[in-house]
TrEMBL record:
Protein name: Thioredoxin
Residues the UniProt record annotates as site (Deprotonates C-terminal active site Cys): 32
Organism field: Halogranum rubrum
Keywords, ordered alphabetically: Disulfide bond, Electron transport, Redox-active center, Transport
Keyword check for Chloroplast: no
InterPro entries, sorted: Thioredoxin, Thioredoxin-like_sf, Thioredoxin_CS, Thioredoxin_domain
Length: 111
């Protein structure tokens, strides 16, 4: 996957090691822990797609149904949970639907 692909559209995370690679290879990664049955997650989807397209951050999507143990290990108790990673380290966590401007601000502060 080329750098332009990873940043232009959200990336579906296949495994914990896949997310580790994304975090290691990119300066800022916004991880969306979501579920298909989650209404607020669906509301947040277009915002995350725009952020993936408009910023240098990689938007990674983790399906909590598919990766239950990983989501639990990450402390995800409700969805959507958004985690920001900057330069390989977890930097910030927010829960619930967020305003696009707030998410972009957080990304810019971490970059």
């Amino acid at each position: 996957m080329s750098q332009t692909e990873t940043t232009a559209t959200p990336v579906h995370v296949e495994s914990e090691s896949h997310l580790d690679e994304l975090v290691a290879e990119n300066d800022v990664v916004l991880v969306d822990f979501y579920a298909d049955w989650c209404g607020p997650c669906k509301m947040l989807e277009p915002t995350l797609e725009e952020i993936a397209e408009e910023t240098d951050a990689v938007v990674a999507k983790v399906d909590i149904e598919e990766l239950q143990e990983f989501a639990q290990a990450q402390g995800v108790r409700s969805v959507p949970t958004l985690k920001f990673f900057a330069h390989g380290e977890e930097a910030k966590t927010v829960v619930g639907v967020q305003d696009k401007a707030d998410l972009v601000d957080a990304i810019e502060q971490l970059a």
